[in-house]
Amino acid sequence: MKKTTLTLTLFLALSNLVAQTHQHINTVPSKPNYCGEAIETNRLKEAYPSFSEIMMTEQEEFQNGYENFLDSWSPYDRATYVIPMVVHVVHLGGDENISDEQIMDGIQQLNADFSMTNDDLGATVTAFAGITGNADIEFRLATKDPSGQCHPGITRTYSETTFDEGNSGPTYHPIVDAVEDAQGTWPQNEYMNVFICINPNGNAGYTFRPTNWFPKDRMYGSIFLRHDYMGTIGTSNSGRKHTFSHEVGHWLNLAHPWGNSNTPADPDNCGTNDGVPDTPNTIGWTSCILDGESCGSLDNVQNIMEYSYCSTMFTEGQAARMIYAITETTTADRYKLILSDNLSDTGVDAPGDLCEASFSSNQTVICAGQTVNFSDDSYHTVTDWTWTFEGGSPSTAGTENPSITYDTPGVYTVSLEVTNGGDSESVTEENYIIVLPNTGEGLPYRESFESFDAFPDNDRFVVENEDGEVTWELYTEAGYASSKSLYIDNYGMDNGSKDAFVSSTIDLSSVDPDDEIIFNFKVAYNRRNSDNDEWIRFYISKDCGETWALRKNVKDDDLGETVSTSPYSPAGLADWRQVNITNILPDYYVDNFRFKIEFDNDGGNNVYVDDINLYTASMSSITEQELTTSLTVFPNPLQSTATIQLDPAASEQVTISLFNAMGQKIQDLFVGEMPAGQNQINWSTADLLKGVYIVQVQSGSTLHTIKLIKK
């Protein structure tokens, strides 16, 4: 075993590296640009002279109006302004699909910064503490969609465009278009739209200053944030708490304190400014030097529009500028968002009606004895909860987020009724919780799907369907050595989604640590195009599926080198390839072992899986009397010829295959219908090298193996 340790470790490392590389086809910078407002604006200016001209005129007009506004504005004479917002999470099913809690935390931090209630405001240095600016703007999640229907104010869209490539024109932006296709248009003159994604074009975030260049009734002038820069919890952290506020500042026409560039620390920045009279000229800071004087006076290093990451404040002049952007100018129709009619239309002028009961949980497939954490996702203004948990302990609950233990295997329903003291809503999810046996099926394990009438059955297998579209299902037209298999109707699917089927529990606890596990299955696949990059991945779990370990990648020619421009289906045994898993180690010899076979699409063709086998190497040497009274191979040890004798009780389809000691298939010795009674197959073994071999006989839904030796 020691001789294989280095090779196996290297294999696992390379397998994980390849999987990670493929998973993120678009590179995500570990350290993105602090802010892309100037970068994205300048890119559009270079590509579209009309945009440059419009922006120049708009900013000159804005600056003149703002300076006049300052003559009569007092920082203590203003109203509270409410801006409706909606958050669009664009994801691939990973960590970037951030929780509602992280979104709400980000909004809480945003509102604190815009009302001078942020908990780090007291750390502002004395020189600027007297001019901290309270914009008194509150951002509220919309409770109504553009059609007036009740809505939580958060949308979630599965799309590869979560790798944002930025605007390519006034009416084209892939990430916006994906959301509009899935969720409809939320006009930017009614809502402040915020897009959360994996990679906003290499930036932590970006947006555009108010401009009429973007259509006011579309969503192209929105705010774009990398998921790990939203709020302070979840995928983000407390050091990024002001990033959202920074981008909203740009959205309300604030520049960086050094002016309209993305080059802080440039000495030439002393000759430019942000148009705000109480922010000192500065070269710009990417570190927290509180006594920094870069242009002849003390810099406002703690300004939220700086890059110092020790921000605490806006200035009074910045607050005035943002208020002017939503009250006194028609550019981009920002002013329309705060109008009373719009506040009513978007539902932010009231707490919101109770209109939908909804819930989620941290997992839906568990083993007996495990606990599920439930969360109420109902909206809005819920005050009381009545939960019912079939098969759970306790079976009822009256709290918002209960934890329930399931002790008995089965498939169970969950119900929730919510009220706000007047109205009530309810929801029931049938077959929501699947509880598997904590001690699974014993060995040898064999699955050819012949006994399935539909798939999945939520007993022997469950399915993970990342995008909610086509996924693994039963195919009744062809199998490896029978009439059924599993397949994905994948012809032309190109959204990069992953679909997996996952086994129930299998008991490996009695396997001797010195014994080896033999695991194999068959795959049939043709590409649609020669450059298709589609994968089969094989995972195992030793804790009933709470965590998974990758053990095999199958791709490129190992998956299938033949190109079929029409929808593919296997025509015979030659179409099937065996996948062998040789690295299931003894620490996975547990009673609740599970496996998962996952397919990753890329615009290719249909894929099929069949004939799953799991047993130990020692089981290969069981005599035929222990396995079946009808199978014999003699002589053993083998000589130059051998005879396989099989005595089926009735006529049946039989496949007899030869494998080496590593589980690699060498050849099929017989495939076809075998009549009842004694059958003998003469087999030439003269060309076999010395070693250990396994003869596998598959008949119907049973599998028999015999270990042979060639001396």
How far apart, in Å, are the first and last alpha carbons?
24 Å
Tell me the CATH superfamily of the largest domain.
Collagenase (Catalytic Domain)
CATH architecture designation of the largest domain: 3-Layer(aba) Sandwich
- Oligomerization state of this entry? single chain
User: What CATH first level of the largest domain would be assigned?
Assistant: Alpha Beta
Poorly predicted runs:
1-26, 621-629
Q: So how many helices?
A: 11
Residues in helices, as a percent range: 10-25%
Based on CA atoms alone, the radius of gyration comes out at 32 Å
Provide key terms for this protein.
Jelly Rolls, six-stranded mixed beta sheet, alpha+beta, Collagenase (Catalytic Domain), disordered N terminus, 711 residues, Immunoglobulin-like
